[in-house]
Amino acid sequence: MGDGRVPKKDLVGAVQAVLGTLRLKIAPGLPLAEVLAKELESFRVKVTADRNESFESWRERDHVDLVLALALAVWTGERLGPRPARRLPLGLGRQP
Question: Is 53 a domain residue?
Answer without folding.
Answer: yes
